[in-house]
Design brief:
With about 375 residues, the protein is an alpha/beta fold. It has two domains: about 10-45 and about 285-385, Aspartate Aminotransferase, domain 1 (Alpha-Beta Complex), CATH 3.90.1150; about 70-265, Aspartate Aminotransferase, domain 2 (3-Layer(aba) Sandwich). It has 16 helices and 13 strands. A seven-stranded mixed beta sheet has the order 2-8-7-6-5-3-4, with helices on both faces. Helix 1 packs parallel to helix 15. The radius of gyration is 21 Å and the shape is globular. The two termini are about 25 Å apart. The relative contact order is 0.18. InterPro entries: ArAA_b-elim_lyase/Thr_aldolase (IPR001597), PyrdxlP-dep_Trfase (IPR015424), PyrdxlP-dep_Trfase_major (IPR015421), PyrdxlP-dep_Trfase_small (IPR015422). One of its GO terms (biological process) is L-threonine catabolic process. One of its GO terms (molecular function) is L-allo-threonine aldolase activity. This is Threonine aldolase.
């Protein structure tokens, strides 16, 4: 983590207030804020339906046609769009990324005859999926590294167990949305290939990695045997994900999707919102990534704060302050309610004692913030916090 300073902010000065951060209060604060630095203003149900039925939805797909039935129509059109964007033979729509990940790992285990998956201990299946890959499929994981970064080629080559699949989360969210360099990534993939393993990219946020790698989406996806992407992370869709790769693999994945309960009767709201997100957000991501560096510099100027990574590699990064999470959450909401400016999302205790962290997401609303705007609002935030 970078931007470490001598702490002039006194953690003891933060009032010990009870947590009052209810979902309804946060939603109201976000809706009422005139300016948001991290994230986007949430839409009401009526606003989301109007968006899908209005110009954005009609530009994305022919709304005068019939709804999808068990994956045809608009769902099939979305699958074709994703395969084209990633340069793969085919893609399959999934209701959730968790299901897509489990199916991908299961399919590769069947194909390789090896149930051992190499992944990071902070990878999404380890931290956020309640061990579904072990409980549902009987797979087992091995960790090439415990460092807060993706494994190196040497670590993959030296792994002491013969894994069949290497799963790489790009970016690795819980380590701070970190990415390897392009040469590092290609070397890691080659090291896995040398061990006769297949490579799966957990690319929930793969869309925003092109600026860091200096490569197109097809060039990135080509490194892997399969790729998972999300539609509600980054793109702002209602829900849903896609699993992309060779046509034979995708056909197998669709069979398991049915068995896992993912063959829904109709999924047009999720599919339509995904198409809207691909049209609207995908072209803006390079601008978000560039402005994230500006935002990080402004936030990191506060003594005692930390920005992780020191220079953001995507449009998201971690921001840490030496205060209790409850106090930071309360002040975040108070500032939004009283001034109309909302700087942060939710805060949590950091692994580092005495610090709390939040995840900053630089999206369209943040582009309006100058460094001076951030300095002024952050100064106000700290005064309210004390």
């Amino acid at each position: 983590m970078a931007n470490e300073h001598s702490t002039e902010l006194d953690p003891a000065a933060a009032p010990a207030e009870p947590a009052r951060d209810s979902a309804d209060r946060r939603y109201a604060a976000q809706r009422g804020a005139e300016r948001m630095l991290s994230g986007v203003r949430p839409l009401s149900l009526a606003e989301r339906l109007a968006e899908l039925a209005g110009g954005a939805g009609r530009a994305a797909y022919d709304l005068d046609g019939r709804p999808d039935v068990y994956g045809d129509g608009i769902v099939a059109a979305l699958e074709e769009r994703v395969a084209e964007l990633l340069g793969t033979e085919a893609a399959a729509f999934f209701a959730t990324g968790t299901m897509a990940q489990q199916v991908a790992l299961r399919c590769w285990a069947e194909r390789t005859g090896n149930t051992l998956v190499a992944m990071h201990p902070l990878a999404h299946p380890e931290v956020h999926e309640r061990q579904a890959f072990t409980q549902l499929t009987g797979l087992r994981s091995v960790w090439p590294t415990r460092e807060p970064r993706l494994p190196s080629a040497e670590e993959v080559a030296d792994c002491d167990e013969p894994f069949g699949t290497l799963m790489l989360e790009l970016p690795l969210r819980d380590a701070g949305f970190v990415l390897p360099g392009w040469d590092e990534l290609t070397a890691v993939v080659e090291a896995a290939r040398d061990r006769d393993a297949v490579v799966h990219f957990d690319g929930a946020r793969l869309w925003e990695t092109t600026a860091h790698f200096g490569r197109t989406l097809p060039e990135i996806a080509e490194l892997a045997d399969s790729v998972y992407v999300s539609f509600y992370k980054t793109l702002g869709g209602v829900s849903g994900a896609a699993l992309a790769g060779p046509a034979e693999f995708v056909a197998q994945a669709k069979a398991w999707r049915h068995r896992y309960g993912g063959q829904l009767f109709q999924q047009w709201p999720a599919a339509l919102s995904a198409l809207v997100g691909l049209d609207r957000e995908l072209p803006r991501l390079d601008a978000y990534v560039a402005h994230a560096k500006v935002v990080a510099r402004a936030l990191g100027a506060v003594p005692g704060s930390r920005v992780n990574p020191g220079v953001p590699q995507t449009h998201q990064f971690q921001y840490l302050l030496p205060y209790a999470a409850d106090s930071l959450n309360e002040t975040t909401l108070r500032q939004a309610e009283e001034t109309g400016r909302m700087l942060f999302g939710g805060w949590r205790a950091a692994p580092v004692p005495g610090l709390s962290f939040t995840e900053i997401t630089v999206a369209s609303p943040a582009l309006e913030w100058t460094p001076q705007d951030i300095e002024d609002a952050l100064g106000q935030f700290l005064k309210m916090l004390r």
